[in-house]
Design goal:
The complex is a heterodimer of chains A (472) and B (343). Chain A is mainly alpha-helical and 472 residues long. In chain A, the strands form 3 sheets. A two-stranded antiparallel ribbon of chain A has the order 1-2. In chain A, strands 3-4 form a two-stranded antiparallel sheet. A two-stranded antiparallel sheet of chain A has the order 5-6. Chain A is globular and about 80 Å long. The mean pLDDT of chain A is 96. Chain B is mainly beta and 343 residues long. In chain B, 7% of the residues lie in helices and 39% in strands. The radius of gyration of chain B is 19 Å and the shape is globular. The chains are: A mainly alpha (472), B mainly beta (343). At the A-B interface, helix 4, helix 5, helix 9 and helix 14 of A face helix 1, helix 2 and helix 3 of B.
């Protein structure tokens, strides 16, 4: 019998992380639910694979010149971190403030942006928007290096209001122009040289030169501006100070957090939770961490309604399966192929399709992507040589009577240890029927890769192919 | 770009930079170079480790100090004869055969300097003579070869054709112990030096593996190291260390005392100049850019600074010497090497 504590903590770890092996789940359960929420929201030590090891064996992840190596580098972080919320938060902001490789030809600066999300993504939304506005990848992505005191470029100003904070309908075209004026002079070092290199995809003579923020006072329009009804000689920070005060901004941030960390669809109870998160936004001084605490502690989040209410994104799917299987804990050949797999599923890390990011929820699933998803998870979870799968086999044996599992034990045990995953009666009966074909499973004296272990691998493969496994 | 003690016993003058990133599968330029050797004819051999996208072109490139690119050899990526997966380091024996380690295939492969595959040896394992991640390689005056056996935390001594002679070391941080060791060198007295990578030090042994000294400690101060990858020793006993994690090279005296630090001062190579000459718009902006910028605090680490500062060493993975007092520093992430002349 699966306890509600187990199911609820597993639910939390699917949202605030990438799911959890039973060992990881037990560590969090020992803290109690409240303790687990705090541990996830306040990571003290990410404990991920050290950079020096990655750089030694993967030259492409030391140089970070190309997209493939850079995406793989982030994959290692997500796979090996002991602070999954930090990576999940970075992934959330990467999707919301979507910045892509295609225009930049500068993967390192994208990873620097991701590092900024780790550093600031759970703090003040006001500080985060300031950091975002100073981020060189964003500056080039939305042309703020072309936004001059003598001739504005509205692109960043427009998207800051429309896609990154208030949402359309809450400001005027004049507000956009004034916003753009305030961000004139916010550019990157050696902007003209770097722009040429980006446009030509030049790597010569010695590979990429990374980017950093530069403020050019002489290119900043210091004149008086009127923005959302306030007037002054505003600079970028002033504009952001005004943006974050707006109720529309609170609703925008709360809604996007809700849809990423709670449910694709917003029910009546979900709407009440969003309003509570908006109240926290203002009472906490725009703190994202506090908004997420409100979410994770809400009755809605803890209810059955919220469980399995999201379709796993491809990155969540891939990272979750690898973490469960316990693979790629040390630098190894093939990691870049794994990050390519996510691209085939529709979510290439560091390459969102547009500034609007990915279309999530049920749009993740089409027939081609579903085949990729099922094949990948099934392959990872059915390999009985993987340490995580070996641990599942050992736990199945330990939890059985004398090492023997009947077909129902085998199906239920695998569903439990991969989640616990709640499945429909119909799905469960299919799993049990499959297990019944070979009768009881005797795990006594099992040896790596023998037929008994392979039967467990086959059941895990089947669970990975269920509809329910696609949901978080 | 150097700092030094008040009265260093050595001076090094920057000479030039050779290299350009090679984005293809052959031809002039380098692809994530990992080691360098200069032969008696002053030909320079560069081991291109290559990233996964260009793995099929793992190769040794050849050039001269006068920027002439002479060609390359290799048989690509894999485990067939003459092929490599993760090539690490190379060394010349007395017969001018080039021996190259592969930390993934667990073997040592030999080529002639004209590019002919000769042989390979090595067997995966932890027994005597077996290898688990061979990295640094160096010959003594009798043509015995020392191979750093990184995952077995030891150094192994073989004959030139791979017959086991001896080994020493175990995992740990005590004298004679190792933690993922990498580079190796032999001095004029046939002593053996090992870059004890994750212990942030250089260890010195006699030819039979008797521990003699441990040089350095963890840190970014003078005489301290952060993940040293490579070591070379000149005829006077000066010790050159690729202080990879600190993105610099340090020189120690024969007694291990700190002498000086090089941070790198690369200029545009001849090959780079030729590229820029055919791209005048890019050159014009480059010429007025500040390539040694002041950086925000969150990017103020050696790695980030070097990623943004083109003249500095970035990924200085190997140091090597020729017979005329020149130091060659290979930079993986900048696809080039910088040359310094001992005064």
């Amino acid at each position: 019998m699966i306890s509600n504590d187990t199911a609820m903590t597993a639910h939390l770890l699917r949202r605030a992380g990438f799911g959890a092996s039973r060992e990881e789940l037990e560590q969090y359960m020992a803290m109690g639910y409240d303790g687990a929420v705090e541990a996830l929201l306040n990571p003290s030590d990410a404990g991920n694979m050290p950079d020096d090891l990655i750089r030694r064996y993967h030259v492409e992840q030391s140089e970070l010149r190309d997209l493939a190596g850079s995406a793989a580098y982030w994959m290692y972080r997500m796979i090996s971190t002991s602070a999954p919320m930090e990576e999940k938060t970075a992934l959330f902001w990467h999707g919301l403030f979507a910045t892509g490789y295609a225009k930049l030809n500068q993967a390192r600066s994208l990873l620097n942006q991701v590092e900024m999300f780790r550093r600031s993504g759970l703090g003040s939304f006001e500080d985060l928007l300031v950091e975002l506005s100073k981020d060189p990848a964003m500056i080039v992505w939305l042309d703020n290096n072309e936004n001059h005191g003598t001739a504005i470029n509205e692109n960043y100003g427009r998207e800051l209001l429309e896609l990154f904070s208030m949402g359309i309908g809450n400001y005027t075209e004049d507000d956009i122009k004034e916003c753009a004026r305030a961000f004139t002079g916010w550019t990157l070092g050696n902007a003209e040289y770097m722009s040429i290199r980006a446009a030509k995809d030049s790597i010569w003579p010695y590979g990429r030169i990374a980017w950093h923020f530069d403020y050019r006072e002489e290119d900043h329009d210091d004149g008086e501006k009127t923005f959302l009804g306030e007037t002054g000689r505003f600079n970028g920070e002033d504009i952001i100070r005004i943006i974050v005060k707006q109720e529309s901004t609170a609703r925008f941030v709360a809604t996007r957090l809700f849809q990423f960390f709670a449910a694709d669809e917003i029910s009546e109870a979900g709407e009440k939770t969003i309003q509570d998160m908006m109240a926290t936004y203002f009472s906490s001084g725009y703190q994202v961490r506090d908004m997420l605490r409100t979410l994770f502690q809400s009755d809605y989040f803890k209810s059955e309604e919220a469980r399995f209410a999201r379709v796993k994104g491809p990155v969540e799917m891939v990272v979750g399966a690898i973490r469960m299987a316990g693979n790629y804990q040390n630098p190894a050949l093939g990691i870049e192929k794994v990050s390519n797999t996510m691209l085939y599923m529709g979510q290439g890390l560091l390459q969102p399709p547009t500034v609007e990011g990915w279309h999530e929820g049920s749009e993740w699933i089409d027939s081609g992507a579903l085949v990729e998803r099922v094949n990948f998870a099934a392959k990872e979870l059915s390999d009985v040589r993987s340490p995580g799968v070996r641990s599942i086999i050992d736990r199945l044996q330990a939890g059985s009577d004398d090492g023997v599992l009947d077909p129902e034990d085998l199906a239920d045990g695998c569903l439990d240890l991969l989640g616990p995953i709640g499945v429909s009666d119909e799905t469960r009966s299919v799993l049990v029927e499959y297990a019944t074909r070979k009768g009881d499973l005797d795990l006594n004296g099992h040896q790596p890769g023998d037929e008994a272990e392979q039967r467990v691998g086959n059941m895990l493969r089947l669970v990975a192919a269920t509809r329910e496994y696609q949901l978080a | 770009m150097s700092t030094q003690t008040k009265s260093p016993g050595i001076a090094l003058d920057y000479v030039k930079t050779i290299g350009i990133v090679n984005n293809g599968f052959n031809g002039r330029g380098f692809a994530n170079p990992y080691d360098i050797v200069v032969d008696g004819d002053k030909r320079i051999f560069i081991l291109n480790r290559c990233d996964p996208a260009r793995a099929d072109a793992i190769r040794v490139g050849i050039c001269t100090l006068d920027d002439e690119y002479l060609g390359e050899f290799g048989k690509g990526n894999g485990t067939g004869d003459g092929q490599f997966i993760w090539a690490v380091a190379m060394a010349l024996d007395s017969q001018n055969r080039l021996h190259i380690t592969d930390e993934h295939s667990n073997r040592v492969t030999s080529y002639s300097l004209s590019g002919d595959y000769l042989s390979h040896w090595g067997k995966a394992g932890s027994g005597d003579g077996e290898l688990n991640g061979p990295a640094g390689i160096a010959f003594d005056s009798s043509d015995n070869v020392f191979v750093v056996d990184q995952h077995n935390s030891r150094v192994q001594k073989f004959t030139v054709d791979g017959k086991f002679i001896a080994n020493w070391g175990s995992f740990g941080s005590g004298d004679g112990q190792f933690n993922l060791p990498w580079g190796a060198a032999v001095d004029n007295y046939d002593n053996v030096y090992v870059a004890d990578w994750r212990n942030d030090r250089i260890q010195k042994f006699d030819n039979d593996g008797e521990f003699l000294a441990a040089l350095g400690s963890s840190g970014d101060g003078e005489g301290q190291f952060m993940r040293p990858t490579s070591v070379a020793v000149d005829p006077e006993g000066f010790i050159y260390v690729a202080d990879w994690g600190n993105e610099r090279v340090q020189v120690l005296g024969p007694d291990g005392s700190f002498q000086l630090i090089l941070k790198g001062e690369a200029t545009t190579s001849k090959w780079g100049e030729e590229y820029l000459a055919s791209n005048p718009e890019e050159k014009a902006e480059r010429d007025i850019s500040n390539l040694i910028p002041a950086l925000p605090a969150h990017l103020n680490t050696p790695y980030h600074i070097s990623s943004q500062t083109e003249p500095y060493f970035w990924g200085p993975v190997s140091v090597s010497l020729d017979h005329e007092g020149r130091l060659y520093v290979v930079e993986t992430n900048r696809h080039r090497f910088q040359v310094y002349q001992k005064r």
